[in-house]
């Protein structure tokens, strides 16, 4: 049965129950300023970053090209490298020094950034944790050993190492438009990442005596110099990730001859490092609709048994990337397939590298998940621009351009649980998705973790939904953030927090921003507006360095939605959502009361008194002999009077005004019969949590039918604590459910329900008349403030 919604002649379908007159009766009702613009919280737009959120006409960014050779010594577990960097100064500034990152120093006991943490006496400890305190700290032998730093001609350069950062003092000022070429030779002992932690290193497999190397943050790399930060040379502690410049890479890796190597970019000499059979399989995989084993499981098992003493050099090239990572092991099975990105007609090689320990999972799913991810992200952001996308099983997750490291091993007998499979798929999608955030839309991870982790986790959720509609996503749906938002206020922190200072890192940097974007898309903006704005942000800032304000402004600019209230509450604040149904008032029409007569009220505007309080600033200004005051002759010559401008009408204190309320007429019997079955329901809401959100209601009627209504968050603009809505129905209401689909992250659903069976409603009647033809009642009905209200009169 279709529900008939009645619109009465004297009322609208829904009514907020709060007017301009109420503001005078509820002083301080808007004290939280939740709907004020962000204003000076955001940086001032300039020629580099516009007020629309787009790069300004003067936007610039510097660039660094790398030519690197690397030698992997498996016996000593040492990496030796030599690089030539060409650094381009596109900034308007003269530079007399440059900064590089030595991330591997974080593994050193004496070179690391050493951000200490509080520690307490444990009740139990592992043998690794229970080590005698050795003061002063001895050198554990890890970290970067700089062998030589020279200019392009081989002349030594003066440099200073400060923990994980290195400053090179330039022999002459590097001016705008100039480039500087220099060389660095270095080496370091590769850490066991399974024991020491960190994002790169080796994993040893004692069963077969082999290592699997993930070479990340392995070379001295340029810091970002930008218009918004200058040099981003904050120390690397292992938490806050990276800020990097774009450039072109040419990298050669000399490794044991039986190793298989995967890396950022395209390998340029497969014909020299692969067997003829492997090369043929690789070429076949380019056009295959299913993953083809390029290096088979049998070949990988055979290679594990024979540690070759011969060596091979693999050569890779990658253009317009911000970083380079690679992997090397004789344990790898390698498969691949071609993927077409329709939006830009880009043919991509999706590939996976994995040891036999992960074979039964990765062979089935990894490369297909890679292909699915880059295709889905291309729909929501920009078309994937690179020629390669790779997933490497390495027992952990970490991302780099065109290559990422993931987990997902089976039991020894090759079996796996549904949980392990879904966890593996989620990690692959997430890490491959990082190709877009931050590898292409290149935010500053050292400062803002949410700009890559949060945005990426959001699109990961969309991609998981496209992979399997019942995929058990843990981040993205609004209800999944509730447990975090229920924590005491002193355990919550704004999303807009520096990476190093976040305590609840997972919820803060990943879950809450992803959830917020999903709420924007599904509940606040709608998919069409959101998707257009989100794609606009990705397009504007692809291969550039966005900041939070660029994202916030673009989302509003491209959608026409004022979202400052949302950024203020969800990103800058810690308030949770807890909107409660406080009370329901039920009323039926009184059709017999005589109509009201028109009334006239006369009033005169009082002349407001000037502020005669002398504050301390005024007193001190008068005492300051260096201050000369402007003399307002007009104010001295005449009385200051209050004037209210409403169109052509001027309020004058010398004039008497008349405020007229139009009368009403009786309803005809036919009209009474039409409205006699109408019931009005006023629902009062209380904002207990503090964070404003849309009010979404599901009505269930006594005949079993249902109706859903949604009011935008703007309903809270004039009163952030309490609002009311009135509905008129031609059938009896049985119950009301607030936020029925749990889409606003409301932390307490126990106060979201009202039932007419509970007997907790107030019963009343409302008078119903026919509005006089041509009559106008100023005030709440048309949103205008009448002169009497403006003058403060009742």
Primary descriptors:
globular; six-stranded mixed β-sheet; alpha+beta; 794 residues; 28% strand; seven-stranded mixed β-sheet; 37 strands; 17 helices; 21% helix; disordered N terminus
How would you characterize the overall build of this protein?
This protein is α+β, with helices and mostly antiparallel strands and 794 residues long. The protein is built from 17 helices and 37 strands. The strands form ten sheets. The chain has a seven-stranded mixed β-sheet with strand order 4-7-2-1-13-17-15. A six-stranded mixed β-sheet has the order 16-19-20-21-23-22, sandwiched between helices. The protein has a four-stranded antiparallel β-sheet with strand order 5-6-3-10, with no helix packed on it. α6 crosses α7, α6 packs across α8 and α7 packs across α8. The two termini are 47 Å apart.
């Amino acid at each position: 049965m279709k529900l008939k919604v009645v619109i009465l002649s004297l009322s609208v379908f829904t009514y907020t129950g709060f007017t301009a007159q109420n503001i005078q009766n509820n002083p301080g009702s808007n004290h939280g300023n939740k709907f004020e613009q962000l204003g000076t919280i955001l940086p001032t737009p300039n020629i580099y970053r516009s007020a629309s959120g787009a790069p300004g006409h003067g936007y610039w960014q510097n660039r660094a090209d790398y030519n690197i050779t690397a030698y992997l010594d498996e016996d000593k577990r040492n990496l030796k490298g030599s690089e030539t960097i060409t650094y381009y100064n596109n900034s308007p500034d003269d530079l007399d020094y440059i900064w590089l990152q030595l991330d591997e120093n974080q593994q050193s006991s004496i070179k690391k950034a050493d951000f200490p943490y509080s520690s307490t006496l444990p009740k139990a400890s592992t043998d690794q944790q229970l080590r005698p305190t050795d003061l002063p700290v001895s050198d554990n032998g890890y970290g970067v050993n700089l062998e030589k730093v020279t200019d392009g001609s081989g002349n030594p350069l003066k440099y200073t190492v400060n923990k994980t950062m290195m400053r090179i003092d330039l022999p002459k000022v590097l001016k705008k438009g100039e480039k500087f070429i220099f060389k660095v030779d270095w080496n370091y002992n590769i850490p066991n990442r399974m024991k020491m932690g960190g994002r790169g290193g080796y994993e040893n497999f004692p069963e077969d005596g082999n290592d699997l190397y993930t070479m990340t943050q392995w070379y001295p790399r340029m810091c970002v110099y930008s218009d918004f930060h200058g040099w981003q040379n904050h120390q690397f502690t292992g938490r806050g990730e990276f800020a990097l410049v774009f450039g072109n890479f040419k990298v050669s890796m000399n490794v044991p001859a039986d190793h298989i190597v995967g890396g950022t970019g395209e390998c340029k000499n497969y014909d020299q490092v692969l067997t003829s059979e492997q090369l043929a399989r690789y070429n076949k995989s380019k056009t295959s609709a299913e993953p083809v084993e390029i290096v088979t499981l049998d070949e990988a098992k055979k290679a594990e048994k024979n540690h070759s003493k011969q060596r091979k050099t693999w050569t890779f090239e990658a253009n317009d990337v911000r970083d380079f990572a690679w992997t090397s092991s004789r344990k790898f099975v390698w498969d691949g397939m071609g993927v077409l990105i329709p939006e830009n007609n880009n043919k991509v090689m999706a590939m996976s590298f994995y040891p036999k320990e992960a074979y039964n999972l990765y062979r089935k799913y990894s490369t297909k998940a890679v292909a699915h991810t880059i295709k889905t992200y291309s729909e929501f952001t920009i078309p994937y621009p690179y020629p390669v996308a790779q997933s490497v099983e390495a027992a952990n997750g970490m991302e780099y351009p065109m290559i990422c490291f993931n987990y997902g091993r089976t039991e020894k007998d090759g079996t796996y649980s549904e949980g392990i499979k879904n966890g593996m798929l989620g990690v692959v999608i997430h890490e491959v998705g990082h190709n877009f955030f931050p590898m292409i839309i290149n935010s500053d991870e050292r400062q803002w973790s949410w700009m890559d982790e949060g945005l990426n986790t959001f699109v990961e959720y969309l991609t998981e939904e496209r992979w399997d509609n019942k995929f058990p996503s843990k981040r993205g749906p609004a209800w999944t953030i509730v447990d975090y938002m229920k924590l005491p206020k002193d355990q919550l922190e704004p999303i807009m927090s520096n990476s190093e200072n976040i305590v609840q890192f997972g919820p803060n940097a990943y879950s809450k921003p992803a959830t917020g974007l999903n709420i924007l898309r599904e509940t606040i903006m709608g998919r069409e507006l959101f998707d257009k704005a989100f794609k606009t942000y990705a397009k504007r800032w692809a291969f550039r360095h966005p900041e939070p304000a660029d994202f916030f402004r673009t989302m509003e600019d491209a959608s026409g939605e004022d979202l400052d209230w949302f950024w203020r509450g969800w990103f800058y604040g810690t308030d949770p959502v807890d909107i409660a149904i406080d009370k329901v008032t039920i009323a039926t029409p009184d059709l017999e009361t005589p109509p009201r007569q028109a009334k006239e009220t006369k009033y005169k505007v009082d002349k407001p008194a000037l502020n005669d309080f002398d504050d301390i600033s005024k007193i001190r200004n008068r005492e300051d002999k260096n201050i000369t005051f402007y003399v307002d002759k007009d104010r001295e010559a005449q009385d200051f009077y209050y004037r209210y401008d409403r169109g052509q009408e001027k309020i004058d204190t010398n004039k008497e005004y008349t405020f007229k309320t139009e009368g009403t007429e009786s309803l005809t019997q036919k009209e009474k019969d039409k409205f006699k079955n109408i019931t009005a329901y006023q629902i009062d809401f209380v904002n207990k949590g503090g964070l404003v959100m849309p009010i979404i209601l599901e009505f269930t009627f006594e005949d079993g039918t249902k109706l859903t209504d949604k009011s935008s968050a703007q309903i809270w603009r004039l009163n952030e604590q309490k609002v009311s809505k009135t509905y008129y129905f031609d059938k009896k209401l049985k119950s009301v459910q607030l936020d029925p689909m749990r889409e606003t992250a409301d932390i307490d659903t126990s106060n979201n329900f009202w039932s007419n069976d509970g007997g907790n409603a107030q019963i009343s009647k409302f008078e119903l008349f026919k509005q006089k033809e041509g009559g106008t009642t100023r005030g709440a009905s048309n949103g205008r403030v009448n002169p009497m209200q403006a003058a403060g009169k009742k």
